[in-house]
Design a protein that fits this description.
Largest sheet: 8 strands, antiparallel
Oligomer: single chain
Shape: globular
Number of helices: 4
Radius of gyration: 16 Å
Bound molecules: flavin mononucleotide
Helix content: 10-25%
């Protein structure tokens, strides 16, 4: 096991932060009805057949506990216009319901919160969870897929800032 001093940990974070990503909003509803919501840039498509995606969630994150009690998850790819959603779902001191309060969302047929107007949404069962250091990898089956019309520009995260893509044609 590699153990970094704080300075090396900072360099590791900076190295990883050079990798530009999209930004997703992850939502779920635990069995008792508690909502979970967080911003995540650790989204990755994993497998085409069967269709699987993953997201990594820190075990110390407030959203981790309700997420770990849910059996389904929705992952929304955020548009350039949804920076406010990204900031709200990353706000410490708010639970899932508090983060979602005032946003345009509704529960889907399974009760999972669905946020309106994302660039794409993938929802389905949490098929596996893999412990990985201070995070857990949630593997999600892509049961439901929604894609926005008109190829909206999407939100980008690079180093410590939000950015957006230029308009791209199909
Ligand atoms: C752009 C961005 C990407 C993030 N990606 C992740 C991620 O992939 N996994 C994760 O566990 N937290 C991620 N976070 C942090 C959570 O969204 C949230 O801010 C964090 O859990 C702090 O909330 P808490 O104090 O209630 O735990 C990200 C935050 C931002 C702003």
């Amino acid at each position: 096991v590699i153990e970094f001093a704080p300075a090396e940990m900072r360099r590791f974070r900076q190295a990883c932060a050079q990798f530009a990503t999209g930004v997703t909003a992850v939502t779920a509803r635990a069995g008792d009805g508690e909502l979970a919501a967080l911003t995540a840039n650790s989204f990755t498509s994993v497998s085409l057949d069967p269709p699987l995606v993953l997201v990594c969630v820190g075990v110390g994150m407030s959203a981790f506990e309700p997420l770990s009690r849910a059996d389904r998850m929705a992952i929304h790819v955020l548009t350039a216009g949804q920076e406010e959603v990204a900031r709200r779902l990353a706000t410490s001191g708010l639970d899932g319901a508090g983060r979602l309060h005032g946003l345009d969302w509704e529960p889907d047929a399974a009760g999972t919160p669905v946020i309106a107007d994302s660039a794409a949404r993938i929802a389905g069962p949490i098929v596996e969870r893999v412990a990985a250091g201070d995070h857990e990898i949630f593997l999600v089956g892509a049961e439901t897929i929604e894609i926005a019309e008109g190829f909206p520009r999407v939100l980008v995260f690079h180093r410590t800032d939000f950015a957006t893509t230029q308009a791209m044609a199909a």
